[in-house]
Specification:
The protein is α/β, with parallel strands linked by helices. It is built from 20 helices and 20 strands. A seven-stranded mixed beta sheet has the order 2-1-3-4-5-6-7, with helices on both faces.
Amino acid sequence: MRVAIIAAPYPLEEIPSPPLGITYVAAAFEAAGCEVRIFDYIVSHYSREKLSEQLADFQPDAVGAGCVTMNFYDAQQIIRDVKSCNPEIVTMMGGPHVSFTAKETLRNYPEIDLIFIGEADDTIIEFAPLMKQKNKWRNISGIAFRQDDEIVNNGKRDFIMDVDRIPMPARHLLPISRYRAFGYPVSMITGRGCPHSCIFCLGRKMVGSKVRRRNPQLVLDEIEQIINLGFERINIADDLFASDTQRVKEICNGIKERNLKFTWSAFARVDTVNQEMFDAMAAVGCDSISFGVESGNPEMLKRIKKGIKLEQAQQAVKMCQQAGMLAHASFMVGLPGETKETLSQTAAFAESLNILFGYHYLAPFPGTTLCEKVGEYDLEILTKDWAKYDANDAIVKTSALQPQDIRDFVALYDAEMNRYWQKVLDGYGKGTNTPLDNMRVEGHWRMNLTFKILKDDLIENHGFIEPALFEGFKDRALKELGRRITACTNAEARVVKSTLSDFANRGYLKSSITDKGCKWNWA
């Protein structure tokens, strides 16, 4: 069987790193004996014509797409295009959004044949050999599907207790050179499960309340795999990584023993960390920790069942700084019962930490306690337009606050950040910046340029250079490519030149020279 996995488009603002869930799904299908390809539209352009060509080339038996709530419509539209290209292809979706809206999704979107519910690794192994035998789907736990006019939901499969037997993510199927050029860290997880009950989070429902940790040696193997693919930075994304001091130290000692050279960051809860743990992490390349604090109001923390105290956040930040690492805190606005006073308390507490911090708007995703029991809280959800569930706008209100009140609060923070950034930009132009600030400006320009190069397939569209334009010299061919990209992006020629030169020097871009011309391609 051939299976194509869709990596649906993701906006630049959401920091589109190599997709983790998609590569776990691909690994499960590979383990089931399938030939698998990933059609990645995160760092390349999507069009129905391009999809049609890829389908004709690969001729998959099934096509699946993973998504979160905010890009559900993009994934759904691609699946619809798949069906229009070839109605015989089995179409599948998975991920947190469709896991908790399975019946609604299947009822409203007939182009989707099947949904994987929750943790799908074992479900895929069982389903793969039966994907063309629909009469046997009723016996497979963990799927929902349409049969005639009936929607069949076989229920969630039990969680995999031995996570060591789950195959490592199939990152080798991703367009590696594109992601390396983009430069965002590679995310990985070292375990599954969360015992906490935050009412705005899907973690407990998606991965269970029991923490299932992977063997440290397998964690180290995956780190080594990522480094061998050419990536230089990793983000450990599971919330409970920094909760077992001995295990963290064992992994850190393994990094040192294997002489693994990379920089990394991690998420952490403020109530599970200590100085010994942070010192060990910092000693082997961890340079930043992100804490989810959510609110500066103690009663709000209790209401949302975060399970932390503000004093713990202060202590965690100090320990992080003591270890020489950068601390970052995230806060959520528009929580149930939110008032102008609670927002002010959050702002005051965030500023008192004297670290980098940011705000996210509450997005009550399907499946969360807030979404399912919203009537029990001082909260009203104002839309079911899933594209707006990106945590970048107010889509709720409380008895004390309208959406605009919440936006106005965040706007004050955004205005301050924008003033600071404009000062840095002005300093760049005047030559008064520090070298670090200049590097930030150029890095920002390069990131935006790179995303446009990737998303618009500019190398593919402009990468063939006729012989008369480069006369056999590769550097002239690269210069001509830079001229073309400058013309269609309006970016500074100097930034384009340095970016493309770096891509070529690092091997992300390769040239093929024949008597017909020079063709630039992603490696």
